[in-house]
């Protein structure tokens, strides 16, 4: 069951999506579909969510979203550049007018000196606008908490994008 605060925020995003006539696409890595799941928890979400891409592997990011392998090799999957490409790819491979991407390190492993556990990059793409990126460091809260906070942040970014 999803937390109530996540559902409330998803309800707000769904209402704004209907009001503005913009379908949404999600491109999720470390959240594994939590954002799309929250949006679809609300009845009538088929008029809001076009599709959700769960692109956990680097290959999925390339195949489903068109992320260039060179970006991943050069900057890593958890990077501003890949978050930007994921959001842009979600728009390009959907019928949505607004997309959010999430790529991060939920832990407990996978961290490096420059990319700690809890680091998450987000991208927000809207048709006709430049992709905006955001970086959050949630810290070592535990895997579930990092994923939940990343999903809340992604929904908040969608809300602000309207």
TrEMBL record:
It comes from the Bacteria. Residues 8-161 form the CinA C-terminal domain. Gene3D superfamilies: CinA-like. Transmembrane segments: none annotated. This is CinA family protein.
């Amino acid at each position: 069951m999803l937390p109530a605060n996540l559902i409330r925020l998803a309800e707000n995003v769904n209402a704004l999506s209907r009001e503005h006539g913009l379908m949404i696409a999600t491109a999720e890595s470390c959240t594994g579909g939590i954002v799309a799941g929250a949006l679809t928890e609300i009845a009538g979400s088929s008029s809001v969510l076009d599709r959700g891409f769960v692109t956990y592997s680097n290959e999925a990011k390339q195949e489903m979203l068109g992320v260039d392998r060179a970006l991943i090799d050069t900057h890593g999957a958890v990077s501003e550049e890949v978050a930007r490409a994921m959001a842009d790819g979600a728009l390009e491979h959907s019928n949505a007018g607004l997309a959010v991407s999430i790529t991060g390190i939920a832990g407990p492993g996978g961290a490096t000196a420059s990319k700690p556990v809890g680091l998450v990059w987000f991208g927000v793409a809207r048709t006709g606008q430049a992709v905006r990126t955001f970086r959050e460091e949630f810290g070592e809260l535990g895997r579930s908490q990092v994923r939940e906070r990343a999903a809340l942040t992604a929904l908040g970014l969608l809300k602000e994008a309207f």
